[in-house]
Amino acid sequence: MKRLNRRELITATAFGALTLAMTGRGFAATTDNPYNLIDPTTISVGSMGDAKPYTFTDANGQFDGFDVELFLDVARRIGFDKEHVTFTGQDFSALLPSVANGRFDVAVAAIGTTDARKKTVDFSDGYLAGYLTVITSDAAIKSADDLAGKRVGTVQGTLQETYAKTHFTKSDIVNFPDNNSAISALNSGTVDAHFLDYEAAKQYGERFNGLHLAINIPSFDAPAGFVVKKGNDAFREALNKALHEAMQDGTWKTLYTKWFPGSPMPEQYLPK
Questions:
Q1: 194 SS3 class
Q2: Please, what is the Cα angle at 70 between 216 and 122, to 5 degrees?
Q3: Which residue among 59, 140, 192, 242 is least crowded, i.e. fewest CB within 10 A of its CB?
Q4: pLDDT over 60 (residue 151)
């Protein structure tokens, strides 16, 4: 058997390593990716840029809001600083499919947990609950009965759309890709009311003098959670652990007070 000289030995070793890498066996053996992320070094987040105070982009194009700050704190607790968490904006209706299809590691946008959604994706434990609200400029709208015959806007894919189609059966439900376009339609008279989350509705009510919050509907049975790919239990469990730490040490309460001043605070998320 021919003995290889030093140069031949180095070449053979390098070729073998390259072959392992190309077949995936060598890479899998050496890469640390305990949370099964798309990129082991970075958490890729799908979100919304117009859902203030939950998630929105500021004047510099940076994502901010309650959900954003909370997730960044949770990510830090599992080993990812701010520079290794990337947010990308999408229409709400595309967020869950994008996680299910592997475009994002997680979706963060005050996404309510429902049995129907859990058929295609998994959720972290809940971290936010509140009210669904009808905002309008029509002073005659004071209850759900007053929506009969009215054109009511909802953002496609949200809990509000599902609720409106089930309960506002005498209304004409009009879908929009985001809240901004729906509010624009409301202000122009294209729709008579818009159905959205209470905190977001409050922001629009403060911004536009002609709009008021007419109807508030409790939504405590579908708390918001972080959305992860179905079956990625390691990532989901790590998020849950960090999320509960943030609740127990008062971080959640601090962020809630910052972003929702004066709003009732759900006791289930406060330190025990």
A1: strand
A2: 80
A3: 59
A4: yes
CA–CA gap between residue 157 and residue 177 (Å, rounded): 9
Mean residue pLDDT across the chain = 90
Amino acid at 201: A
Residues with Cβ < 8 Å from 47, sequence gap 6 or more?
55, 63, 67, 68, 87, 88, 89, 90, 95, 107, 108, 109
From the number of C-beta atoms within 10 Å of its C-beta (0-12, 13-18, 19+), residue 237 rates as middle
Q: Using alpha carbons, select from 246, 263, 190 the residue that is nearest to residue 78.
A: 246
What's the maximum distance between 2 C-alpha atoms anywhere in the chain? 95
CB atoms within 10 A of CB 6: 7
Length of the chain: 272
pTM: 0.77
Distance CA 46, CA 68 (A): 11
What is the Cα–Cα distance from 24 to 155, expressed in whole angstroms?
A: 42
Provide the token pair at 55. Answer: 């998630």
**pLDDT category of residue 1 using cuts at 50, 70 and 90:** very low
The separation between CA 240 and the C-alpha centre of its own chain, rounded to angstroms, equals 15
C-alpha separations of 99 from 94, 148, 178, 204, 244 in Å: 9, 36, 19, 29, 23
Q: Which residues contact residue 134 at a Cβ distance below 8 angstroms, ignoring those fewer than 6 apart?
A: 141, 144, 147, 152, 193, 194, 195, 201, 213, 214, 215
Question: Which backbone phi and psi does 142 adopt, to 5 degrees?
Answer: -130, -15
Cα 210 to the chain's mean position, in Å? 29
Distances (CA, A) of 11 to 8, 15, 106: 5, 6, 42
